[in-house]
Amino acid sequence: MGTTLPDPTVIVDDVHLTYKIHGTTGGKGNAPAALDRILRRQNAPKVREVKALKGVSLVARRGEAIGLIGSNGSGKSTLLLTIAGLLPPTAGAVYTDGQPSLLGVNAALMSDLTGERNVILGCLAAGMSRAEAKEKYEDIVAFSGINDRGDFISLPMRTYSSGMSARLRFAIAAAKTHDVLLIDEALATGDAAFRRRSEARIKELRSNAGTVFLVSHSLGVVRETCERTIWLESGHILADGDTEAVVDAYQARNDPEGRRKRLLAMAAEQASAGQATTTEPGGPARASG
Ligand SMILES: Nc1ncnc2c1ncn2[C@@H]1O[C@H](COP(=O)(O)OP(=O)(O)OP(=O)(O)O)[C@@H](O)[C@H]1O
Q: What CATH number labels 60-88+95-278?
């Protein structure tokens, strides 16, 4: 008997998603253009289709943190929206264990309300009771770091920088234990200290047997946070496996200079570690590699 794998939390089965865009061929979509079409008895503008996902299949299991990488427009956000149940697939199916929570940079908070009120509302929206929300309040504010440089939590959210709002949104979402947490670029906006806290929280969620999907253009964050990575390109999965191998292949194609620098830095690190460990009294230092 082989080892048993943890239970699946998300199964994506040959999912296709096609966006339909109306009004793309009839010139400008304004009133004079519409009148012109009527007068010239033209048909209504045609519908154009964008195939964002073209047969994506994957199985995610408890305890996994999965990075989603790929160039702009490759289908990463669309895949998250589909897993979250916010976009029904055009073909194929998504099965999930529990309700996945999508945390995106655009997640709705009320900009005219103070950070304080948004924390409570966000907690209630996430299904916590009022007492639970009050109990978590201090932790959420501390996690977000919003009050690190003054009392910002009592100011309306419209006065926050985009990084501050993204941090507060992440802190609210992370306060709850999720079976499946879907994160779209949220970590990229934080500073180094916030990123460390987020990475620790993601590890904690995983150790509570949750599954985390992380869409990010920051390959460093993906390397740090996920041990499995899926590379999407033009709506297809190009690679799915060990993060180091997948991110390396992605970098080799898209950022050869970045990859060269990383390999050089790693070689230098290994050489200095080798030097430190192979230096013997009276003997010359040898660098490995
Ligand atoms: N609401 C929409 N209506 C029509 N087309 C859309 C819509 N949202 C995305 N698309 C198209 O679907 C494709 C995939 O977009 P998606 O946002 O999923 O890519 P992405 O990999 O998340 O990109 P990025 O890295 O730039 O955020 C793109 O061609 C995009 O133009």
A: 3.40.50.300
